[in-house]
Write a structure and sequence with these properties.
The structure is a single chain. By secondary structure, the protein is α+β, with helices and mostly antiparallel strands. 44% of the residues lie in helices and 26% in strands. Helix 1 packs antiparallel against helix 2. It starts with a strand and ends with a helix.
Length: 163
C-alpha cells in the first residue's frame, strides 16, 4: 500500500464550471418545456403530445447520462505517494507509477495532442510526461506546492530505484 505524501483537490475555473452546469441546465429546461408542451400547452404548434412527451423523456435521460459522465470522468483529487502519482475519480483511482514517468512539470495552453487531458483550469496545469505512453494533463488547486511534493517524491524514488 502506497503512503500518500500529499493530496490536492482539482481546480475548476469559473468558465469550466459555467460550461458544465449550463449544458446540464439546458437539457433540463428543454425537457421541462417539452413536458409542458405535451400537457396541451401547445408551445410548439402542430407538434403531437406523444412526440413532445418522448422528447422530454429523451432530454431528461440525457441530463441523467451527462451527470453520470461527469461523475465518472472528472477527477476529484490528485495525490503524490511514495511509488507514484494517483488520480482519484469518484468510481476508481488511476495509479501512475514513477517507473513510467519521465518528468512532471508546469504546463500551459489548452490544445494538447496525444495526451489524457483533464484541464479544468488554464492557470493551474501540470503535465506528466510518461515513457512510451500518452502524457497526462491535470489541474491541481495548489500547483506549485503539488509540484514541489511530486518532484521530491520522484527524486527520492529515483535514489532508491537506480536504473
Amino acid at each position: 500500500m502506497d503512503l500518500v505524501i500529499f493530496e490536492d483537490s482539482i481546480k475548476y475555473d469559473l468558465g469550466i464550471k459555467i460550461v458544465l452546469v449550463f449544458s446540464l441546465v439546458l437539457l433540463i429546461v428543454l425537457g421541462i418545456i417539452f413536458y409542458v408542451d405535451a400537457q396541451d400547452s401547445d408551445i410548439f404548434p402542430g407538434e403531437p403530445a406523444a412526440e413532445s412527451r418522448t422528447g422530454s423523456f429523451v432530454l431528461f435521460a440525457a441530463a441523467v447520462f451527462l451527470l453520470a459522465v461527469y461523475w465518472l470522468i472528472l477527477p476529484r483529487t490528485i495525490a503524490v505517494s511514495q511509488e507514484g502519482l494517483i488520480l482519484r475519480f469518484r468510481a476508481f483511482n488511476w495509479k501512475i507509477p514513477f517507473a513510467t514517468i519521465k518528468s512532471i512539470k508546469p504546463a500551459s495552453g489548452i490544445i494538447v495532442w496525444w495526451a489524457h487531458s483533464w484541464i479544468t483550469s488554464y492557470r493551474s496545469q501540470i503535465e506528466i510526461i510518461r515513457k512510451y505512453r500518452l502524457k497526462i494533463r491535470v489541474s491541481p488547486s495548489r500547483r506549485d506546492q503539488y509540484l514541489e511534493y511530486a518532484h521530491k517524491a520522484f527524486a527520492d524514488w529515483k535514489n532508491t530505484h537506480p536504473a
